[in-house]
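Deliverable D4.2, example record:
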Amino acid sequence: MPPVIGVSATLKDDTETVAERPLGRFVRADLDYVQSVVEAGGVPVVLPPVVEPEYVDPLLGGLDGLLLSGGSDLDPSHYGEEPLPEMGPTLPERDAFELALAGRALEVGLPVLGICRGLQVLNVLLGGSLYQDLKTQLGEGVLEHRQKTPKCQPVHEVELAGESLLGGIAGKDRFAVNSYHHQAVKEVAGDLRVSARSPDGVVEALEWRDGSRWVLGIQWHAEAMREAGPEQRRLFSAFVEAAGRGSGRRAA
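Output generated by the structure prediction step:
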């Protein structure tokens, strides 16, 4: 049976109207995430950030892996800071849901892949912190991490750490990525280690420190770069394979 992968979704206020009335609020997961899981041999299940904490266990009971997707900024209260003026929009419902979901996923040993915001969720959950705005806090020496070109196009390289989960998956020590974020890891959580950085030193990937667990966070959007290089597709293949190795837990 193919492994079942939970894909965290976001909330979106639709701006369209029907008969001069707003259509309302929607749960949304970008198709690229879903398609990436399908192409890697997994069965995607979209997880709406509107459920109460008591539903986390029933949700995870049907999953073999968890993909934390990108999106809105994390509220800095989760890492003990006041918001800067340059902070972007936050979604309290999503913060609460994903922190609870990811925390329980780690407790039960599910493979976890965090993308962009997902990497930041993992770091904050485990005790790390974030730069709320790279340009404000690191100055003009930092690269432009909010590209204006399509997501399928790379804008800078990342350099990988040796002997890492990410390096083993990619099969190389550097490759090009896209960049769609203005926040990034500041203090790295104790259970994690840096496995990639951009040329300006910004953290681009984190993984479990001692390598004993399949936990990986990447700052770029690999789901939008599947045609840009085989290393992007291998990320999802390795994740789904890891989820498949533990798929018997759903029958337990």
